[in-house]
Structures are given as C-alpha cells and as structure tokens.
Amino acid sequence: MSKISEKKYKEVILYLAEKLGGEIKGKKKLAKLLYFVDFDFFEKFEKSLTGDVYKALPMGPFPVTMEKILTEMAKEEKISIIFKKERADYNSTEIYKAKEKMAGSFSKEEQQILDRVILKYGHLSGKQLEDLSHAEAPYIGTAPNQEIAYELAFYRGTNLDNDA
Q1: Do the beta carbons of residue 129 and residue 25 sit within 8 Å?
Q2: What's one Pfam family here (predicted)?
Q3: 12 assigned to some structural domain
Q4: For residues 85 and 92, is the Cβ–Cβ distance under 8 A?
Q5: Is the Cβ–Cβ distance between 70 and 2 less than 8 Å?
Q6: Is residue 162 in a domain?
Q7: How many domains does the chain have?
Q8: What is the end-to-end Cα distance of the chain in Å, rounded?
Q9: Are 69 and 10 in contact (CB under 8 A)?
C-alpha cells in the first residue's frame, strides 16, 4: 500500500469541496466520496490516490486518516468545519467549507477520476452513497471493522473507460 501523501489528501478534499459548491455536507458523504476516488483510481491505475486505509464500518467504508487530515486542515485554515443541527433527533451534520482554493495540480489521470466521482456521486446524499458502497464487492467481501483490501476494487465491475 502506498504511503499517505497528506498534501495530496488535502488537495483532494479541497478539490471535492470546490467542485461541490464550496462545501461538502456531512462526514459520511466525504468519507464515501474519498472511498470512490481511491477505489476507482486503484481499479484503473493499481494505486490509491490518497494512500489512506479504509475500514468496513457499519455505515460503509471509512478512511482511517480522514479525521486527522480534517483537523489539520482546520488548524491551517484551509477549511472550516461547521456543525449544523438539522433535526432534533439527529446528530449535527458536519459541513466542510473550503477556505482556500485548491492550489496543487493533478495529473491527467487523477483529474479524470476526481471529475468522474464528482459527476457520478457528488449530487448524492451520504445515505445514498452509503447504500451504494454497501453493494460493492470491497465492502461485502470484508469482515466488519476490518481493513478493506484495495485489490477487491477489481471485483467491482466499474466501467472506468466510458464514464466521465
């Protein structure tokens, strides 16, 4: 497994937020978007974009380093994290607002996968993304709370050639 590139990880989050109207609404949504970015990228190029490890948690694949990266980004004032109470019987929704433009540059291949994920999944809610990720081989083929092997991406059957 490739080592985490914190710089690249932060650029991916900023890029996703920028392309989704300046913010990503919900921890679950961000976690699933990162999952689709990493597993699509691995399926096509045999390496992860962020380098993070994903665990098969009850609400779907979850990147184990995401919260640490978000905390650093908030300290660096790259993002702000806003907690919004939407319903009395629900936990507050975390909203990640980009405070700076994505400065880095992506390779053609990275750009292609990021844009594909934004087009295909960006409009969906965290719950919809959770349902989609639960139906995929990497999640189905992994015991609860265990690390999801990137190699399971090859069993997803994603058509990465004709999409976006």
Answers
A1: no
A2: SocA_Panacea
A3: yes
A4: yes
A5: no
A6: no
A7: 1
A8: 27
A9: yes
In this predicted model, what pLDDT tens digit does every residue of 25-84 receive, in sequence order? 999 999 999 999 999 999 999 999 999 999 999 999 999 999 999 999 999 999 999 998
Here the tokens at position 101 are 């433009």
Q: What is d(CA 75, CA 86) in angstroms, rounded to the nearest whole number?
A: 25
CA distance 126 to 52: 19
Q: Is residue 73 part of a domain?
A: yes
Q: Are 114 and 41 in contact (CB under 8 A)?
A: no
The single residue listed with the structure tokens 């994920």 is: 117
Residue 62: domain span: 6-155
How do residues 78-91 score in pLDDT, each as one tens digit? 999 999 887 777 77
Domain membership flag for residue 59: yes
